[in-house]
Amino acid sequence: MHRKNQSTLIATIINLIVAIIFVLIILGTIYAVFGKSISLAISLVNKVSIDTSNVVLEDVKLNSVTKRLENYPEYGTKYGNLKIDSLNVDLPLYYGDTLPILRNGVGHSSGSYFPGEGGTIVCMAHNTKGYLYDLSKIEIGAQIIIETNYGKFTYEVYDTKIVHKTEVDAIEIQNEEEILDLYTCYPVNTFGHATQRFIAYSKLVDKQFN
Amino acid sequence: MKKIISYILSFILAILIIITCIFTMVKSTIMNKQYVISKLEEAKYYERMDAEVIDQFKNYTIQSGLTDDVLEDLFTIEKLTNDINNVIDSIYEGKKIEIDTSEIIENLKKNIEAEVEKEGKVVDFEEEAMQEYLKAIENAYESQISYSTNVVNEIGSTFSKILNLADKAQIAIYIATTIVFLIIVIINIKQIIGLKYISIATMASGLFILVSKLIIESKTDLKNIMLINQATTKVIQLVLDDLLFKVIIAGGILLVFGVILSLVYNVINKKYLT
User: Fold this and answer.
1) Do A116 and A179 belong together in one domain?
2) Are residues B68 and B133 in the same domain?
3) Is residue B90 within 8 Å of residue B96, measured between CB atoms?
4) Alpha-carbon distance B266 to nearest alpha carbon in chain A (angstroms)
5) CB-nearest partner of A193 from B132, B196, B225
6) Model ipTM?
């Protein structure tokens, strides 16, 4: 009886092993035929996955040799503050320029450089009270300060312009000198979406690294 | 020779069982309009979308010189629900949709006039700035409800054709599975109707389904998917959780059933045939 039970069990295990071989053949065939498509599908799924459980603002550091940041801030995170003492402006500075970001403070265009990298930094905020309502009153020589956890950067305004929103040439991305282009909608006190932009151009005049 | 043919047929049967299971699961979930609507209700999708739409409107209103008060009572939850259900109908039945935003814009204009009047000012709705704002609100409503009516219409015409084909494909798969099953039974009629080969096929299909689930979960971050907005993401996550649960049940049942069949075969084989 015991032997019969044992042989029954062994026979069943053998059948299970055959089943496992079948599974391996099917998986191997699928991988061989559709491997690339599967990898693409997996990467697409992972692209739309946002793990918010471990999101922390990592220590952002500037590499003094390459003049590039190490550990760039996550898109949508606050990485500094923008201050204009002459206009009583002190706003949080976020990486990114989507509408939800701009509701929280100053946005930093992802197509531009970061403070300290020696290129054009493009920032923007709404022209409403509590944001850059008074930006069009900024004077030549006024200072704009960006404070981050890796340093403090002071810019001095040297020019201002009012342009139509379609004049994208008004902002030039370059990496020969550090320029901060800060803009907002213009004019203020209009109803609807203003079709012009007020831009304050400023040059880096001081930097202090942490 | 008979053994080799039986093993090959068992392998084919395993594949057919896998396809049947996957097909049945997909057809009863993603391809089933009533199922999707039930998930929308479970996720409180309509209420969440109401909040999402207003939140999106606020993104445009903040830069318009107006306050959020102008967004009061622009549309009812019934209108929103109706528009969302029209999108679902379009996808599942191939109907063309058009989302009507005229009432929303009219209500918005009234609210703007009332607000502006309080400041003793007048608003010109023909001005470019105001036209841009109204257009932005219109597009925001449409894109939140349907992402894009053009895209939905395109998806709808293709998806409804797929649904029609799916019914025919399901019948074909059932017939093929039955035929292979019967062939195994017939050629092994004297060997306990081929229970051995059927049990191997069942175990293989159960194992494949369970292993695939593990591989998918290890390679992808399904739990943290974020698509379009929070409301849509919640529905997608509910559907995925449901599908993965069904996968575990189907795989588990097939595996256990296969093991039981194998044990039964081996017991009978030992008792009566050897």
Assistant:
1) yes
2) yes
3) yes
4) 5
5) B132
6) 0.78
